[in-house]
Amino acid sequence: MKVYFVTSNEGKFREVREIGKKYGIEIDWIRRKYLEPQGSDLEEIARISAQLLAEEIKEPFFLEDSGLFIEALKGFPGPYSSYVFKTIGNEGILKLMEGVEDRRAYFLAVIAFWDGEKVLTFKGRVDGKIAREMRGDKGFGFDPIFEYGDRTFAEMGEEKNEVSHRRRALESFFEYLKSLK
Ligand code: ITT
Ligand code: NA
């Protein structure tokens, strides 16, 4: 089975392709940006983005919107993760977290799948902590500051794909795709 994945983020595409292999699903990359409405939660953003894109893409496709939610910052950057990463980045987040004892954070991923008629959504979450400093050189985005157990996602490499928010969302999505056959 083959399915189109729309993203401008190469790190996300690589992970999705690797996880797809485990489920026998081939992922084709549509590399482009798309319009994301602001001021809603991730699920709403993903759903509306997919509905808008469906006017242009004629085949079934999915996109995935993810975010880092930091408890001590009341869920910031959450739906603003992309902008925050591009502006203040990991250094900026570490600075905001200086002297903060509660390091709890989670990643959320929402997949929106356009099946040709309607949008279906699938979610995944992983809980961890914000590190005290950046560690590791694998992965992308916030991986160097997100600790899962003793290691950051950027130190885990391939092992990240066993436990990540993206893996968990894809798991339910791919199970759904397989159930259609
Ligand atoms: P697309 O919308 O084109 O897919 P994006 O980079 O904007 O690409 P997101 O909105 O889903 O993707 O991601 C929000 C931010 O969170 C972005 O800066 C990512 O680099 C970061 N991010 C997403 N998933 C991550 C992960 O697994 N590990 C670390 N950072 C991640
Ligand atoms: Na995005």
Question: What features would you describe in this structure?
Answer:
Helices cover 35% and strands 28% of the residues. The protein has a single domain (2-179), classed as Maf protein, CATH 3.90.950.10. The radius of gyration is 16 Å and the shape is globular. It contains seven helices and seven strands, in the order βαβαβααββββααα. It has a seven-stranded mixed β-sheet with strand order 2-1-3-4-5-6-7. It has helices at residues 10-22, 42-53, 81-87, 89-96, 153-156, 160-163, 165-179; strands spanning 2-7, 26-31, 61-70, 104-114, 119-130, 146-148, 151-152. By secondary structure, the chain is an alpha/beta fold.
Q: Summed up, what is this model?
A:
The protein has helices at residues 10-22, 42-53, 81-87, 89-96, 153-156, 160-163, 165-179; strands at 2-7, 26-31, 61-70, 104-114, 119-130, 146-148, 151-152. By secondary structure, it is α/β, with parallel strands linked by helices.
